Amino acid sequence: MTHSTPAIVILGQGSLATARRIQQVYPAAKIHGLAGRVESADCTYQEFGATLRTLYQQDTPIIALCAAGIVIRTLAPLLLEKGAEPAVLAVAEDGSAVVPLLGGLGGVNVMARDIAAALQVAPAITTSGELRFGTCLLNPPSGYALADIESGKRFVSDLLAGHSVRIEGAAPWLDQAQLPQDPQAQRSIHVSSAQREARADELLIYPRSVAVAVSAEVADLPNAVRDALHQANVAVQSLACLVASDTEMASANLRAAAFELGVPLRFVAVQGDLQALTRVALPEANVICLDSVAIAIAGQPLDVSQIGRPRGRLAVIGLGPGAAELMVPAVKAELARATDVLGYETYVRMAGPFRDDQVQHCTDNREEMQRARHAFRLAVEGRSVIVVSSGDPGVFAMAAAVLEALHETDDPAWHSVDLEILPGVSASLATAAQAGAPLGHDFCVMSLSDNLKPWTIIEKRLDLAAEADLALAFYNPISRARPWQLGRALEIVAQHRTPQTPVVLGRDIGRPGQTLRTTTLGALTPDQVDMRTMVLIGSSTTCTFPRAEGGDWVYTPRWYGEKPIG
């Protein structure tokens, strides 16, 4: 079965109704619509092939509402070396056909059946094992792990050839399967957490029913866990998670061990020996205590989400200027995993759409420190929290406020939170890119708002930056509360620049209704600018020349003084 949220990709408006019906099966899935051809999609993309290949490489299940051949030709370059692959399905635009294409071991046929049921059609399943037995033996459900895929393929081939099978252990998902069962069969499906060598006539499936309590002080922790499991005759494949005391939540050693072993890391509010840890985490389990770890074995697969809690995470993200295609992939991935999203309401809305289980905490734009402290309080509970900024979070935005909130506290729980700052495309860089390269040499970024710093400091910095012949980028250039300050700023810059100095005005760049205009320092007046305008003032070397389609290119050359020869 698939463990990831799928992406629903459509090419035209005619597919949207079918896509919405599929979305009812996967409420967290987003509908990706081709820009300019699809209205009301959850997000847009510019190029079908690049989008599909990116999703595939990110291991995202794909539901493409188009001809199967288009999907096959698009993904063919990525299929030369077949390894783990996400589920890929083609669905007719009108919902009349559901065709699983790739990802037999990724639950593609389960998805095909679910989608087909919602669309009230028959799925076009061609996998021999699934057609014969009604289940994919090589893709056990969540909570179970197959021992070996290659021997598993041979095992299924034997059953298809007519051999019967018996089931040893608890395999409730096979109760409704049409397997040729016989208590005396030579071939068996063995379900157990015990460590054993697979015979040629059996299929080994391990329930993920084992948790191991560990300490960050143990050297070479991954091998210590493997050795302990071997000593206890427990299969490594049955390991569901590592458990540790929440006093060790910030340990890099624990994180590295969990990553190497490929299991989640959970924390319990217990100090003391490892046996006490396991008793609190899994009170009903059988516990084996060894020198460096304690092994807890449950009678069925573990629901890891009910064991202790994870390390809380706080990510401060930058959405970029507003266009979805200018949001960096790491930020998109963070938004998908978040439980809570905090920020100024306008920016939170830009970050959506959100799933029903994602909690939005919208606040006023002036409540940065309260927002930062609230984010830490949520993260300490083990939640995955996002603080949203537009542009880049480190440019006049929330990253500094979050770090300040952390700096001012000595609460160890706050300092144990997994904190990460994820960059975004800043408004100055987005505007510069639209204009050409006006910031192509050294430049200075300044906010003209005096809410958090005295105007005397702003004037001093303006004078020095202009004297240094730096290109200038102005954030927060003007507002109703301070209508005179931009005029004063231009007076200061004009003491060091000629009236012909190029100026770029970018309003709402990256958002609907964006405008870009080129003028000069001498022609610029404050009434041409509002709070949503980015003002870029060139240096003495900044140049302009006409674009073929109208308007101007603006750039500041990388050389300074006389142009270099050659």
UniProtKB/TrEMBL annotation:
Example GO biological process: cobalamin biosynthetic process
Record key words, sorted: Cobalamin biosynthesis, Methyltransferase, S-adenosyl-L-methionine, Transferase
Domain Tetrapyrrole methylase: 314-524
SUPFAM superfamilies membership: CbiG N-terminal domain-like (SSF159672), Tetrapyrrole methylase (SSF53790)
Biological pathway: Cofactor biosynthesis; adenosylcobalamin biosynthesis
InterPro entries tied to this protein: 4pyrrol_Mease (IPR000878), 4pyrrol_Methylase_sf (IPR035996), 4pyrrole_Mease_sub1 (IPR014777), 4pyrrole_Mease_sub2 (IPR014776), CbiG_N (IPR021744), Cbl_synth_CobJ/CibH_dom (IPR006363), GbiG_N_sf (IPR038029), Precorrin_MeTrfase (IPR051810)
Keyword Cytoplasm recorded: no
One Gene Ontology molecular-function label: precorrin-3B C17-methyltransferase activity
Record has Methyltransferase as a keyword: yes
Segment forming the signal sequence: none
CDD domains hit by this protein: Precorrin_3B_C17_MT
EC number annotated for this UniProt entry: 2.1.1.131
Domain (Cobalamin synthesis G N-terminal): residue spans on this chain: 51-129
Protein name as it appears in the record: Precorrin-3B C(17)-methyltransferase
